[in-house]
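User: Before I run my own analysis I want an independent prediction to cross-check against. Here's the chain; please return only the structure tokens and, at the end, one sentence I can use as a sanity check.
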Amino acid sequence: MKAMFISIALIFSQLISFSQVDDNNWVLYRSIDGIEIHTQEINCFSNEAPAQKAIIIKVVNHNKDNYRIEWDLSVWYNNEKSVSNIKDGENHHSIDLAGNQTIQGSCDAPYGPFYIFKDFITYVSPTKLTSYELENIRITKI
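Assistant: Structure tokens:
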């Protein structure tokens, strides 16, 4: 019985350690017309990729109507802007939110519009995120 309890505890702790999103650590990035954009730094652990530090994004629609939210992501690694043309397809993001809907990034979906790579945890890398900005934020009722 004791061995079974320890096994269950280990499995549960692995599930928890996969990502460390804390609902109390969101930082309000911007609020526009009832739409809030929050960010949070997290640690991501996966069997398929090296452990990473990341910034995840959460978008909250406090309105009853549906909205489209668009932005262009600018990132600086080692104090150098990563991409000069932020309006290209890779850096432009658009999402549709239903009334009172929330969408947020996670370790389960890295490299998407809600995930910004910051640094590796498990090994030393010369590339480090030094800054990021969500530019040209546009909110449209749909």
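Sanity check: The chain has one domain: 2-141.
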